[in-house]
Amino acid sequence: MRRKHREDEDTAIDMTPMLDIVFIMLIFFIVTTSFVREDTVEISRPTTNQDTTPPKNPPPLIVVSIDEQSNVFMNDRSIDPEAIRANIETQLAADPRSPVLVRVHEEAVNNVLVTAVDQANAAGVSKVNVARWITGK
């Protein structure tokens, strides 16, 4: 006897088990992923709604300058990057309210900038301002 093939018989693959496995793997990877928090340097940017009236009797500004060869200057004299803390502490002894500004040339090495900010923080300055050093050409 000969078999008859039914053309109306539908052959389909059930995708439900495969989707279950994919979702289980997705949940596994989400749960096992560890998120690493990287160390960052806090730099505060100026806002547009600052009070523009200058304060009465402002404290003197302590300026640390870093040129394009990554040389460090304070009060127009060259100093060692590791001596920034001692120089800032000396100037803070005269007026502890003095803000610190680190002027850095855009071609200076970033490590010197980070060292300058770290040295200023170690000297007891709570907020160090960073500005780009613009040179006249």
UniProtKB/TrEMBL annotation:
One GO process term, biological-process aspect: protein transport
Subcellular location: Cell membrane
Superkingdom in the source lineage: Bacteria
Annotated transmembrane regions: 12-36
Major subcellular location class: membrane
Signal peptide location: none
Cited Gene3D superfamilies: 3.30.420.270
Keyword field: Cell membrane, Membrane, Protein transport, Transmembrane, Transmembrane helix, Transport
InterPro entries given in the database record: ExbD (IPR003400)
Record's bilayer topology term: Single-pass membrane protein; Single-pass type II membrane protein
Single GO MF annotation: transmembrane transporter activity
Any one annotated GO CC term: plasma membrane
Family statement drawn from the similarity comment of this UniProt entry: Belongs to the ExbD/TolR family.
Record protein name field: Biopolymer transport protein ExbD/TolR
Upper taxonomic lineage: Bacteria, Pseudomonadati, Pseudomonadota, Gammaproteobacteria, Kangiellales
